[in-house]
Amino acid sequence: MAEQNEKIYLLSLLPSELEEFMLSIGEPKYRATQIFTQMHKGVSPNEMTNIGKATKAKLEEVAVFDLPTVRKKLVSKLDGTVKYLFELIDGNCVESVVMKYKHGNTICISSQVGCRMGCAFCASTIGGKVRDLRPSEIIGQVIKASADMNERISNIVMMGIGEPLDNYDNVLKFLRLVGCEQGLNIGYRHISLSTCGLCDKIDALANEEFPITLSISLHASDDETRSSIMPVNKKWNIDRLLSSCKNYYAKTGRRISFEYTLIAGKNDSKEAALRLATLLNSRLRDRNANEPFPIHVNLIPVNPVSETEFSASDKKAVALFAQTLEKKGIRATVRRTLGADINASCGQLRRAEENNKA
Ligand code: SAH
Hints:
Blueprint: E1 8-9, H1 15-24, H2 31-39, H3 53-62, E2 63-64, E3 69-75, E4 82-87, E5 93-101, E6 104-108, E7 112-114, E8 129-132, H4 135-149, E9 155-158, H5 168-178, E10 191-195, H6 199-206, E11 213-217, H7 223-229, H8 232-235, H9 238-252, E12 256-262, H10 270-284, E13 295-301, H11 315-327, E14 331-334, H12 348-357
Parallel strand pairs: 1-2, 6-9, 9-10, 10-11, 11-12, 12-13, 13-14
Antiparallel strand pairs: 3-4, 4-5, 5-6, 7-8
Helix pairs in contact: 1-2, 4-5, 6-9, 10-11
The structure holds S-adenosyl-L-homocysteine (SAH).
């Protein structure tokens, strides 16, 4: 008898793999495209009208359609942002957020259940990492949200729960799946990935065929401060991280943005801003290059998490930080907070659910 873990996760299969799989269970190859397209619209094989009972029974026996289900859904009255708490087939939960912009819908998705990176200000890492998401569960969030809202999702940010580069192979497979013409067909220019800075993986990604946009969670302009809030910095320090950024840009030509969470009294002084500007200008901008490295910093006042003691910088400090960067030629934007009334920042809804269970 096949064990659960030997089962085939249908949403993790590329069209060519699904063809092979259909052949292996004695079904014609052409069925694969029909099934692939419908599954990627959120229809389970069991609901499909163009496949017979016998095929459904065979699929049920050896394969799993593990689209997540909606455990909770919150809709912002302020801006229409939708936050989902999705339940996976083993009962674990992850969060996704759909933001509505003029240019289309953007979804922020999770890559792991929990996280093992240990950033001091982040809710997702509090209980550690439970497990990696499968490719099917990563793309499943996009498929389910789109089907539930009955709207197309045109942009993806991998900025939810988990460290995507700590689940590298599954994330890469997801990128292949989401770009398939027979499915969601979302191009790499519409995808960005946020990382706390796993340099070996950033270097590996630079050599792949996916020129996606990177967001680097920097959050400090000196190693001492960064190591005190982000343990990953002890392994890959700021200098090493900026080398990987430079290499990524050189190889892919894709812009990189930096995330900087402003924490009162920790990393939000004018000196810190000046140091950040000097650091980025000196390490990334090559005066002799034809095209200067496009540097963009997103400033995000920290979202207080009940289990941590950090509080957000006040408006004055945020404005001064932004101005200081701009004066040194670094574009800085203070992040617009979407879904402020539904606590849309990641990890907190899952935490609340876990605490309820306990
Ligand atoms: N692991 C990845 C992606 C998930 S976190 C990464 O580290 O980039 C997504 C972004 O939210 C990161 O920039 C992260 O540092 C930031 N973040 C986490 N907790 C936050 C909080 N309480 N307030 C503001 N930003 C936070």
